[in-house]
Task: inverse folding
C-alpha cells in the first residue's frame, strides 16, 4: 500500500528568515499525539500572521506547520475520548506554535485538546468562528459574570473590523446590547452597522482620550471588549461607567498600558483578562454551544472570506497590516 501523502504549508528558517513552502508530507512527519484528525478547514488569525512571518519568537523549532485552530474528522484516537468519524474542533493549547497545527490536511494532537462540534455545526462554520469567535464569546461571558447586561448601557468593541472584533459586534448585538464599534478604518462603517453596530467611534477618539492623561472622563460605556490594547485601552478605561468592566483580549495596538488606578478606585471598574489558549474543556464546550446558537451560518456570511493554503503567506502580511476584514476561512483538505 502506498504511503499516504497530503498537502501542508511548511515553515523553515533560512538565513535568519522564516520562509514557507506548500509541499506534500506524510504521517511519519507529524509530531506525537494520540489522536489523528483529517483537517478540512482552518482559519487565519493575527497570531497566525505572526507565526507565518516569524515574528515574536512564537515558534522556536523548525520545520513547522502553523495554524492555531482547525476543524475536521477523527481518523483514529488511542485515548478513547473520540470515535473515528466524529467531527471535532481544536483551538488553543499552543497548537500552531509549539505543536504542529492546522495548515496541513492531517494533524496529530492530544485528544484532550479537542472538543466535539456542536450538533448541526459544520467544520467550515466552526472555522468561520474559530479562535477569534471563541475569544469574543469568552470575553462576553466574562462580562456577563461581572454582572454586565444590556440595560446597563453601551458596549464598546475596539478593533471592531478585525476577526475578534467583528464577531464581538455580532454577538453583542445578538445578546441585546447597544454596540459601539471602534475602528481605525472609516470605510468599514457600513460593514460594521450591517453586523449590528449602532454607532461607529473612530479609533482616534480613544487615542485622543488617552493623550489627555486625565484619570477620569465622562462615563460613557458600561462595558467593553478590547482587542487592541495599548493607548486604545488607556483611552477607554477613564470612560467606563461606575461598576463597568472591560474584557481585554488583544494587543494589536501594543502590550504596554499607561494609565492610573483611579478608575478602579473611584468607579469600581474591572479589567478582565481573556485567555483562549489554556481554557479547560468544560468552558470551551459551553462557549461553543452558545456560539452555535447565536451565530448561525447565514449571520456569519458577511464576515467570511475564503482562502487556500497557498494564499496564506500573502494574507499574513495583510492581517498584520490591519487590512483583513472579518474572518478568513482556510480550505485545507479532508
Result:
Amino acid at each position: 500500500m502506498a504511503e499516504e501523502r497530503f498537502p501542508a504549508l511548511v515553515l523553515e528558517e533560512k538565513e535568519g528568515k522564516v520562509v514557507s513552502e506548500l509541499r506534500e508530507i506524510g504521517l511519519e512527519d507529524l509530531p506525537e499525539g494520540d489522536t489523528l484528525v483529517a483537517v478540512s478547514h482552518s482559519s487565519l488569525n493575527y497570531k497566525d500572521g505572526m507565526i507565518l512571518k516569524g515574528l515574536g519568537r512564537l515558534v522556536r523549532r523548525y520545520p513547522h506547520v502553523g495554524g492555531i485552530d482547525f476543524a475536521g474528522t477523527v481518523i483514529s484516537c488511542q485515548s478513547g475520548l473520540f470515535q473515528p468519524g466524529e467531527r471535532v474542533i481544536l483551538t488553543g493549547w499552543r497548537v500552531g506554535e509549539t505543536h504542529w497545527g492546522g495548515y496541513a490536511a492531517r494533524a496529530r494532537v492530544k485528544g484532550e485538546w479537542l472538543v466535539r462540534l456542536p450538533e448541526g455545526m459544520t467544520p467550515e462554520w466552526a472555522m468561520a468562528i474559530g479562535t477569534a469567535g471563541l475569544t469574543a464569546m469568552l470575553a462576553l461571558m466574562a462580562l456577563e459574570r461581572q454582572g454586565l447586561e444590556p440595560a446597563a448601557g453601551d458596549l464598546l468593541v475596539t478593533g471592531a473590523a478585525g476577526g475578534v472584533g467583528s464577531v464581538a459586534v455580532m454577538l453583542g448585538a445578538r445578546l441585546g446590547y447597544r454596540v459601539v464599534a471602534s475602528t481605525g478604518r472609516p470605510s468599514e462603517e457600513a460593514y460594521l452597522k450591517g453586523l449590528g453596530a449602532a454607532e461607529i467611534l473612530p479609533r482616534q477618539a480613544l487615542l485622543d482620550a488617552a493623550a489627555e492623561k486625565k484619570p477620569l472622563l465622562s462615563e460613557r460605556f458600561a462595558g467593553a471588549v478590547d482587542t487592541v490594547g495599548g493607548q486604545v485601552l488607556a483611552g477607554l478605561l477613564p470612560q467606563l461607567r461606575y461598576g463597568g468592566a472591560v474584557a481585554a483580549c488583544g494587543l494589536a495596538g501594543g502590550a504596554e498600558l499607561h494609565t492610573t488606578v483611579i478608575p478602579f478606585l473611584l468607579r469600581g471598574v474591572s479589567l478582565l483578562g481573556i485567555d483562549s489558549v489554556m481554557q479547560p474543556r468544560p468552558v470551551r464546550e459551553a462557549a461553543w454551544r452558545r456560539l452555535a446558537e447565536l451565530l448561525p451560518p447565514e449571520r456569519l456570511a458577511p464576515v467570511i472570506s475564503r482562502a487556500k493554503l497557498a494564499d496564506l503567506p500573502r494574507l499574513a502580511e495583510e492581517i498584520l497590516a490591519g487590512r483583513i476584514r472579518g474572518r478568513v476561512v482556510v480550505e485545507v483538505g479532508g
